């Protein structure tokens, strides 16, 4: 794959800033702080299909909406150095028919800390012979390796990658499970965490967090408040978050497996939840709420819930749905800080953040 030309990057980033300013203009937002990304080797995750041409097979990707015209790859400059180093070595390994037979997809998960997890997906059952061969490959590459076929999952090593991020002078360690959501651009993720911790500031009250995932933001934000109540619906993410709390020695976070909508019902006393047994919701002194919702943004009821708090810290992967949520909040809260995080260079996607305070 040809090397990326860095010259258009500044212009593209300026266009993203202008688009964000236009979306936030109705809310009298200050000028956004802009956090740029390296132009290459920023993506810690990558997924490839395998494409056969004659006797050869290649890593392949497809343009959006086209599943029939492969883009054949020998390397992938936007992916991490670790992924690019592993791609040819793994390709050599699938020449072994035990590894390569009916292999159709490869997924890489790497970290800034240098860890790597590879998932191999097959259109055939996996057996003991595959396990033996896969153990050799994992040892040779220095990675954990997972084999997936219909109804079967074999783990060689760990089923997660280990990350370490520096936030406000402290190092936080994270388990990032295979198949669970993790931030794809680790450098930008670290910048987002530092920005979020800075703008929240030191508080003597409590924080509510919705959509907490594996605790990516939860851990550093917990150092700025008295207590945190964090919610997440994905079981694998909850398990990873619990391991991350223990691994970092953090004891002021209570984690519950509820959706944002369910927690809204619980706080509104619409109905009780057994998963909240033993948790005194009325004992919290919430001053701030942190949200990092999916692309659809917050639903109207959850958005209405956030209105109760003095401060709303909102990280968004979709500026259009962020703007829709801000329209609902604008009469009670004003934007005092905002930022653009260029998580996905060379695309139209962007991550943004706003801090809102009660008017």
Automatic annotation (TrEMBL):
Q: What highest taxon heads this organism's lineage?
A: Bacteria
Q: Tell me, what is an example of a GO biological process annotation in this record? A: tRNA methylation
Q: Which residues form the active site?
A: 317, 351
The EC code for this enzyme is 2.1.1.35
Q: Which residues bind S-adenosyl-L-methionine?
A: 183, 211, 216, 232, 292
Keyword Transferase included in the entry's annotation: yes
**So what does this thing catalyse?**
uridine(54) in tRNA + S-adenosyl-L-methionine = 5-methyluridine(54) in tRNA + S-adenosyl-L-homocysteine + H(+); uridine(341) in tmRNA + S-adenosyl-L-methionine = 5-methyluridine(341) in tmRNA + S-adenosyl-L-homocysteine + H(+)
Q: What cellular component terms from Gene Ontology apply here?
A: cytosol
Offer an example of a GO molecular function term for this protein.
rRNA binding
UniProt cross-references to InterPro entries, sorted A to Z: MeTrfase_TrmA_AS (IPR030390), MeTrfase_TrmA_CS (IPR030391), SAM-dependent_MTases_sf (IPR029063), TrmA_MeTrfase (IPR011869), U5_MeTrfase_fam (IPR010280)
Its keywords, alphabetically, are:
Methyltransferase, S-adenosyl-L-methionine, Transferase, tRNA processing
- Keyword match Methyltransferase: yes
The UniProt family comment states: Belongs to the class I-like SAM-binding methyltransferase superfamily. RNA M5U methyltransferase family. TrmA subfamily.
**What HAMAP family does this protein's entry cite?**
RNA_methyltr_TrmA
Functional note: Dual-specificity methyltransferase that catalyzes the formation of 5-methyluridine at position 54 (m5U54) in all tRNAs, and that of position 341 (m5U341) in tmRNA (transfer-mRNA).
* NCBIfam families xref list: trmA_only (TIGR02143)
Quote the protein name from its UniProt record.
Answer: tRNA/tmRNA (uracil-C(5))-methyltransferase
Q: Which organism is it from?
A: Pseudomonas linyingensis
């Amino acid at each position: 794959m040809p090397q990326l030309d860095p010259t258009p990057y500044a212009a593209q980033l300026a266009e993203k800033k202008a688009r964000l300013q236009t979306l936030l203009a109705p809310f009298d937002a200050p000028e956004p702080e802009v956090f740029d990304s390296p132009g290459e080797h920023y993506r810690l995750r990558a997924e490839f299909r395998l494409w056969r041409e004659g006797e050869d097979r290649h890593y392949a990707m497809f343009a959006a909406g086209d599943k029939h015209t492969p883009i054949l790859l020998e390397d992938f400059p936007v992916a991490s150095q670790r992924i690019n180093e592993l791609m040819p070595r793994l390709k050599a390994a699938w020449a072994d028919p035990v590894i390569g037979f009916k292999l159709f997809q490869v997924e890489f998960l790497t970290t800034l800390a240098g860890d790597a997890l590879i998932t191999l997906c097959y259109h055939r059952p996996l057996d003991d012979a595959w396990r033996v061969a896969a153990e050799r490959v994992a040892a040779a590459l220095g990675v954990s390796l997972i084999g997936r076929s219909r109804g079967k999952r074999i783990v060689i090593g760990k089923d997660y990658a280990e990350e370490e991020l520096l936030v406000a002078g402290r190092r936080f360690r994270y388990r990032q499970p295979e198949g669970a959501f993790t931030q794809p651009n680790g450098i930008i993720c670290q910048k987002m965490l530092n920005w979020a911790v800075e703008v929240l500031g030191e508080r003597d009250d409590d924080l509510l967090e919705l959509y907490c995932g594996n605790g990516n933001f939860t851990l550093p934000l917990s150092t700025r408040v008295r207590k945190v109540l964090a919610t997440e619906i994905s079981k694998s993410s909850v398990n990873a978050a619990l391991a991350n709390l223990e691994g970092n020695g953090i004891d002021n976070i209570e984690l519950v497996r509820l959706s944002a909508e369910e927690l809204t019902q619980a706080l509104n006393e619409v109905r009780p939840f057994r998963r909240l047994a033993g948790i005194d919701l009325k004992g919290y002194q919430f001053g701030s709420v942190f949200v990092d919702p999916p692309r659809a943004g917050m639903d109207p009821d959850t958005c209405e819930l956030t209105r109760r708090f003095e401060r709303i810290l909102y990280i968004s992967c979709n500026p259009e749905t962020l703007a829709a949520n801000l329209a609902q909040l604008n009469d009670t809260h004003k934007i005092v800080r905002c930022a653009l995080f260029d998580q996905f260079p060379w695309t139209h996607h962007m991550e943004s953040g706003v801090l809102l305070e009660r008017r």
